[in-house]
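2024-03-11 09:14:02 DEBUG pipeline.ingest accepted 1 chain
2024-03-11 09:14:02 DEBUG pipeline.ingest length=433
2024-03-11 09:14:03 DEBUG pipeline.predict start
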Amino acid sequence: MQRGIAWLSVVMLAGFIAGCAKPANPGAGEPGAAVASEKRDPVTISFSNGFLTDEDFDRYITQPVQKKYPWITIQKSNGKGLTERVGAGDTPDIVVHHNIGGMQTYLDLNLTYPLTEMIKKHRMDLNRFEPEALDAVKAATQMDELVGLPYTRHFSALYYNKDIFDKFAVPYPKDGITWDEAYELAKKLTRMEGGVQYRGLEPNVTERPASQLSLPYVDPTTKKALVNTESWKKVLGFMAKIRQIPGNDQITYHGGANDVFVKEQRLAMLASNNILFEGNLYKYPDFNWDMVTYPTWPEAPGIALRNDQHMMSIAGTSKHKDEAFLVIATVTSDEVQMSISRQGKLSILKDQSIRDAFGADLDFAKGKNLQAIYKTKPAKSFVPTKYDSIGMGAINDALKDVVSGGKDLNTVLREAEEKINLKIAEKEGGSAK
């Protein structure tokens, strides 16, 4: 009997100790779970302009937040720019922007609010995120603390028209394709047939393949151009070489490139980011296309474009920082990120089940090689500057000067360097020398 009582006492004591112990992983769990059931005063969280359609905004933000935190009301953007709103004293609580260029306005307006304390307070587990995604935020701000969290990012792929490959009896590209291999395919597929000029490959803007090698445009310290280098010469030369294939000399970027591939359907291969919706692939369910990994450079195997991600930051002026963080935590939750992935938008979480579900709800993408997007990794981001757009424009002009103007690479890169430095000096109010 005494042995039985002693045994029971040990069990009860163990249960008491276990009940008092702290969780093994206090950083894990659902952020905001402790406050979800508390009664709160109504709070309105306002947003700046973003990248989501009204339908997606409701799906990924308004509805999930309302379900989880009924006292929080989401106010969409009023359509005005961030600078205009700040000037009018109407600064939003949450700023939606991207790490390439878009972050700069947030910084310039002194809206920065580090999320360190909020992450700790609400026990957000940052290990759920792609490490490259968080590194890209820090690279954009040159700060050790995170001042924003990504909720989706672009992916890159090589899209191809199967009918054109079949027409000319050329084998389809495969995952792991290199730029050299894509070039060789392009030579075979660039043909005039039945009065139609078929193009083999459109690599799009030069900034993208250059980003695979983490090539910067401007030195963030000296504010001087960094484009007149051997690495830039290699990339620009190769992009020109693709356009110098007889019949493939047309240069088309972004929407124009999408149209040649999707609408006109006379482009065999398009190296681009997510064109499932932005490129209107969803509008052409009978289009016989597929995709493989984005072409890579030999010195950067398995590396695709740098992270171009959409993110949310809390304005330092917000009077409702806790609630604003709960909104961001909701959008980056497993549930919402799964919905984002199933709808063909890339989640920034590492969860394999979320990755496996990419595009699951898209009938027009059934049977496509969608998992190719996960077979490469984003390139490490260089330190961006607010003058990078000047550099991008100068490089695009340099490409035209080579392909259409017949200039040599050394000349166009020197001219691009001079053009960038001059424009920066004008904006800085100083001298280019």
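2024-03-11 09:14:41 DEBUG pipeline.report Confidence is low (pLDDT under 50) at residues 1-29.
2024-03-11 09:14:41 DEBUG pipeline.predict end
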